[in-house]
Write a structure and sequence with these properties.
The protein is an alpha+beta fold. 37% of the residues lie in helices and 9% in strands.
């Protein structure tokens, strides 16, 4: 026999509840139901933060309770509501401020862990969250999925929200970019559906161009350090100087799509961290951008943003930036601030595009709201910044850091893919990275099923476990015979040399992450 909660009820006895009057820790005197009478929460439940967020999904249609609910919890203290009307037009609505009384603020001004001092509304005055609700990563992600980039509070509450940011966590430029983000809407990286043959050099030409490009890489790192130092010391710098560095490598990618990943330094030494890392990220990001319908000027903007994204780390004290240990919360806050420091420096650089500044600002944000400085969800992160963020993470993983050793490239790629499946990165961005470097990144070494050791020299987009490899001679030198593993079933990769984990190609079969 159905119990009192699940059996058919008389919907005319339901009364509309005011969700702004519910608090974490409240015990439900009877069930909370939808407008159609379906049970959302059973009586006796002690409300948690997640429960308030769940109820927030039903604010438009309303939430309802039976006669057991005290009048203090009712919308307008009404005694009855036409619960059958799912739009709420037959019942009385929760009283809301006039739209003109609400002050808009960017969702970026909301902090995880912050409790809202007043109810939160969208631009039409529809309630998004009651007073006292805690801002969580899930709550911010939900706003992002709904395409909500701007929220409304009464003026006094809006000022309290903004003042809650720690000192140094907002700048004039960051506020402007927050407004840009609020108005840009959801954007996607668009893969190229039809492409001609990829630029492809013969092995001898590839080797020669790789050596030339590596020389250019060293010179570019020196030039990037000069530009960054000028900005750090307050000396104005023209964007043309940085653009010249990037333009060199735009020519390289036109020669052969494998060249940029080939010259990325797979393992940096401790002293090379900052500027070599910037160049690595720029090169990888540009190679990844070539997998999408990004015009040349867009690839330049991506390269510039990637190259300059960590200039603000120069503002972070060395004892923090190079600490061989876990950081304290105060020290970690300095790291979180560094994109804002970078924006401050870039205001002294003439001619940098708004897109490049957005890349700098958002390249450390993550799709699941776990990044910084604003804990954005994916739809609130510029697609170019998502692309640079994936390249930045991979480059950081394969680099030495004072508190850890560098990861093997295969291990780094495996970790990045696993994190993508957990929702931390844009799958399209990570797919582009694997397409241009392969699962066994260009420049790394693998063991083949016939026992040979080989160096990976090219990727095969879409066939991430079957790159083009160059077997080594018995003396360790490279042979002159390429093997395209996508064209043979008799030879395959069986081991990524230097990797810590067991090679598990089954995990990578659906690399449509």
């Amino acid at each position: 026999m159905p119990d009192a909660v699940t059996r058919e009820i008389d919907k005319t006895t339901l009364r509309r509840l005011d969700p702004t009057k519910l608090r974490v820790g409240d015990t439900l005197p009877s069930a909370i139901r939808t407008a159609r009478g379906r049970v959302l929460m059973r009586p006796g439940r002690v409300l948690r933060q997640d429960d308030l967020e769940l109820l927030g999904d039903h604010l438009r249609d309303g939430i309802f309770g039976g006669p057991e609910w005290p009048g203090a919890f009712l919308a307008h203290d009404t005694q009855s509501t036409q619960a059958q009307d799912p739009a709420g037009t037959g019942g009385r609505q929760i009283e809301q401020p006039e739209h003109g009384e609400l002050l808009p603020i960017s969702v970026g001004d909301l902090q995880v862990g912050q409790r809202l001092p007043q109810p939160l509304y969208n631009r039409k005055g529809v309630l998004l969250g009651p007073a006292g609700v805690e801002v969580t990563e899930r709550f911010l992600a939900k706003l992002g999925r709904q395409g909500i980039f701007e929220v409304h509070l009464d003026p006094s509450a809006a000022e309290k929200v903004r003042q809650a940011w720690p000192p140094g966590m907002q700048t004039r430029l960051s506020r402007h970019l927050d407004t840009v983000v609020a108005n840009m809407g959801a954007q996607q990286l668009r893969p190229i559906t039809r492409r001609g043959p990829r630029p492809h050099l013969e092995l001898e030409g590839l080797r020669a161009e790789t050596e030339r490009a590596r020389e250019s890489f060293t010179q570019a790192v020196d030039r990037a350090e000069e530009i960054s130092t000028d900005l750090f010391h307050g000396r104005a710098s023209s964007v043309s100087a940085a653009a010249e560095v990037i333009a060199t490598f735009m020519d390289v990618v036109r020669l052969d799509s494998s060249l940029l990943p080939a010259i990325v330094k797979l393992k940096e030494t401790p002293g090379e961290y900052l500027f070599h890392h910037g160049m690595n990220v720029a090169l990888l990001s540009m190679a990844m951008a070539s997998e999408f319908a990004v015009p040349p000027e867009g690839i330049l903007e991506i390269g510039l943003g990637a190259l300059l994204q960590d200039v603000g780390m120069m503002q972070v004290p060395e004892e923090v930036r190079l600490a061989p240990r876990l950081l304290t919360p105060e020290e970690h806050l300095e790291i979180i601030r560094h994109p804002l420091y970078t924006l401050d420096f870039l205001e002294k650089m003439d001619g940098l595009s708004e897109t490049s500044k957005l890349i700098v600002y958002q390249s450390h944000e993550r799709a699941d709201c776990s990044g910084y400085p604003r804990k954005r969800s994916q739809v609130m992160i510029h697609p170019f910044a998502r692309l640079v963020g994936a390249a930045d993470t991979y480059s950081a993983l394969i680099a030495h850091r004072p508190h850890r050793n560098a990861r093997n490239p295969y291990d780094a790629m495996e970790l990045l893919l696993r994190e993508t499946k957990r929702g931390r990165f844009d799958p399209n961005a990570v797919r582009a990275l694997v397409d241009c470097t392969s699962l066994f990144p260009i420049g790394s070494y693998v063991r083949l099923s016939d026992g040979q050791v080989a160096k990976v020299v090219r990727a095969n987009p879409g066939l991430h476990t079957k790159p083009v490899v160059l077997p080594l001679n018995p003396d360790g030198s490279e042979s002159d015979t390429e093997i395209d593993l996508s064209r043979t079933d008799s030879i395959r990769v069986v081991q990524a040399l230097g990797a810590h984990g067991k090679l598990d190609l089954e995990f990578f079969k659906p690399v449509r992450v």
